Inverse folding.
């Protein structure tokens, strides 16, 4: 038995009726890795934008010590600028139309690098939030100290240990969590495409 | 694009519907997935239609877009058997009805193809469509020799699977 034996049956295939949609704009496109990533990113961008807006009013809500406003909002402005850059970048990515009309290898390479580049952009966006988180955490700690006892010194000797330790933990936790998040939610698609690319490599 | 372009596009898809049906059957094993994949391919073809310059025939262009979409198509999550069930039953072959015989033959064929990888399915599709090694290599973006070796291995693999499924001609 050979595969060629199926040729006649194969040629006779595909004559059945095919119902095509009346409106092409209504067609769903949601089963490609790139679409899944875009969908996930869009959802996350909504939450991120809400979180950034919340951080803007957070000091007002908790009655933050006014002496810290300048530093807080200076850091917050940096956060806004960085976020705006990445949000625009992710938005542009969500509008990109992938070229499916090239060879499979080119199409897969393009897809793979589009996904990898955006994964790295996502990671760097997350890492750039760390300085703001550190500044905000320090200010919040100092705010709590002053609120409890107005005469208390802002910094204590123990801070030489506790602050670097906390900062270290924040950095490590952010790096670990971001890597885990990105690999878990986006990396699986990149890995899937990598497998296809490896399969297309020269046969030994 | 206007209504006229849309009508022209749909007419071209209609006259090449066999490509869509065959690819959908190769890459999916449930009616829902099949419908989703066809819809997905038509959508990709439509969004890429503006870039179709007519340098190659419509069907050649369609092959690429359709196969590239199918290769990375994410099926609905469900448990799939990774082992070949040799106890599966298929309708008995009867030679008095040629159409029926071919239908049963293709049932075996599509069942067997489900155990191939997406790239192997693409190779099988191009081969069955009568493309030469050079054309297959151009569509996949690999060397002609690589296409020849991969196709030969895939055919062997498919034959083994068909045998395990109990197909005898």
């Amino acid at each position: 038995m050979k595969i060629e034996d199926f040729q006649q049956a194969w040629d006779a295939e595909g004559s059945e009726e095919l119902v095509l949609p009346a409106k092409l704009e209504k067609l769903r496109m949601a089963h490609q890795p790139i679409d899944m990533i875009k969908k996930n990113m869009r959802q996350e961008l909504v939450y991120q934008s809400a979180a950034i807006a919340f951080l803007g009013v957070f000091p007002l809500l908790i009655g933050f010590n006014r002496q810290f406003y300048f530093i807080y909002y200076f850091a917050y402005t940096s956060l806004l600028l960085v976020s705006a850059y990445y949000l625009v970048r992710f938005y542009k990515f969500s509008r990109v139309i992938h070229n499916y009309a090239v060879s499979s290898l080119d199409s897969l390479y393009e897809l793979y690098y589009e996904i990898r580049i955006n994964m790295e952009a996502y990671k760097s966006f997350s890492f750039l939030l760390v300085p703001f988180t550190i500044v905000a955490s320090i200010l919040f700690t100092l705010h709590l100290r002053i609120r409890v006892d107005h005469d208390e010194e802002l910094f204590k000797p123990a801070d030489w240990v506790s602050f670097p330790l906390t900062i270290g933990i924040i950095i490590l936790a952010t790096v670990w969590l971001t890597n885990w998040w990105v690999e878990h939610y986006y990396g699986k698609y990149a890995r899937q495409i990598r497998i296809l690319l490896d399969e297309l490599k020269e046969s030994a | 694009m206007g209504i006229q372009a849309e009508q022209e596009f749909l007419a071209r898809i209609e006259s090449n519907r066999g490509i869509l049906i065959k690819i959908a059957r190769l890459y999916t094993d449930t009616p829902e997935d099949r419908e989703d994949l066809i819809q997905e391919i038509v959508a990709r073809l439509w969004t890429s239609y503006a870039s179709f310059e007519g340098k190659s025939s419509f069907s050649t262009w369609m092959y690429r877009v359709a196969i590239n979409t199918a290769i990375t198509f994410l099926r609905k999550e469900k448990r799939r058997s990774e082992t070949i069930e040799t106890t599966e039953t298929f309708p008995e072959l009867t030679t008095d009805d040629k159409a029926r015989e071919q239908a049963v033959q293709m049932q075996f064929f599509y069942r067997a193809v489900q155990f191939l990888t997406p790239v192997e399915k693409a190779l099988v599709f191009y081969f069955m469509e009568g493309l030469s090694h050079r054309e297959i290599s151009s569509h996949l973006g690999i060397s002609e020799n690589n296409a020849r070796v991969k196709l030969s291995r895939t055919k062997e693999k498919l034959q083994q699977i068909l045998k395990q499924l109990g197909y005898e001609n």
